[in-house]
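Appendix B. Worked example

We walk through a single record from start to finish. Start with the input: the chain for DUF2029 domain-containing protein, Kocuria marina subsp. indica, length 520.
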Amino acid sequence: MTATGSRPSPAHTGSTATNDSRAHMAIIQGVIGSLMMLVGSVGTGWIANGSPMVRHPLVIELRVNVWGVYGCTVLLTVGAMLLIRSWLRLGQRLRGWPHGSLRTVMIAVIAWSLPLFLAVPIYSRDVYAYIGQGRLMLAGKDPYVEGISSLDNWFMLGADPEWAEARTPYGPYFLWIAAGVVWLTNAQPDASVMLFRAVAYVGVVLCMIYVPKLARLHGINGARALWIAVANPLFLISFVASAHNDALMVGLAVAGVYAAATKYPLLGILLVTGSIGIKPITILLLPFIGLLWAGKGASWPRRFVIWAATALLSFGILAVSGYADNLGLGWAWALLDPTPGYTGYSPSGFLGQQVERVGNFFGQPGDALASVFRQVLQYAAIALVLVLMFVGGDRRIVRRMALAFSAVVLLSPIIQPWYILWLIPLLAATGIKDNWQIRILYIVITFFVVFGAQDQLSVWPFIDLSVSVSQVAFVITVAFTLYLALIDPRTRTLLTHGGFRGWVDPGPPQVAAGTTAHKD
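Next comes the structure step. The output line below is what the pipeline stores for this chain.
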């Protein structure tokens, strides 16, 4: 595959136009995959105990019969893998990214996301926790102090028990949204899920608008950036089917970065502040928004003054917002709360496990050594952020912002699958090369889609299954992944094309036709 985003030469214009028309075949295949996931979600998605759906004859039929549970598992997992293949094939069929490619990618995003919009929640049930937090707000309780277990019948609305005593990690603006959703639906779980999905879809639309704009600002092909960042299956599953509020956080952040990079720094600060008010992690973007505001050739005194002004403006708005609803600065404490544990697939988690094993082998306290190791990685991430703030002047500020954000996320001990989606839009808009960078992205996206397909399946506990649905899903997804990598004549060369050189050769420049790279 050579989806580089370079300008097609006149000799290839007809060929790329043909590829553009053939791209609709990939879109249709992706729609089939999404529809399969929609049907499969009825039997294996997360349904709240208090939902009327649990009494629907079709739902009962699919959830109490072994054939229904297994059938829905197959539909959900095969559909997810078909969506991955469709995404890969769309990039191949739009090779050269000719005129009209952006429209084609947007059609794909809309067509693939609509069935997922109607699906039972899959890959996560956090959306049900949002209902609980909205109820806390309407009950006059502080979600930064109390967990949803303080509410009557909280468990009937589908939330994971892990949320029972947990303080909310979300900002005040999302709590307002959650309260509004619960007030409008009277906490009816199915209607609430659909409204939370609509909120998340606002973030998807913002990404659809501003990722290509930000890419063109940096001389990067907007269609390719959109295909990488928004059309990928992990984005659509996590931000549409799962309705994660991270979608709105990312959408506001990308819009704010674009505003700041186009000489509207105050609007940029307001939009990024809105993003922080959804989930506070995007506070990391503020120092780089300040650099964009300071402008080219800014002296160090000016940069420090602008940094202070940026922080005062953003934090002042958030403080006033919090006190207006008696939430105070709870969002800040939520940001600073240490998260216990680690995920084994994160670099920090995996390497920490190896440190623990080595320590135990030599008779040392392996667990303590692993904990120190993970803390060192977190401090290293903070150091990298500071380096990227102070080194580089006014060059490639948005790219440095993306790398700083990536360092904090990737060196954290806990990485949820959708955390990767925080990084991809900014990285795609500033250039992901057609070498190891895009190939690693293929692997990461596929891994997390496979992981979610077998990890997040809801089956009623009284169903007697000889083989667990997780095992069935695991076999299907691994087999399909091997098919894509080793057998499928269209996709098997994605990781091997060009041999070793294909991993290290940056390929042609990713510039969009008629543009020049923007240096921030």
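Two observations about the output. Residues 22-339+414-500 form one domain. The chain is about 65% helix and 0% strand.
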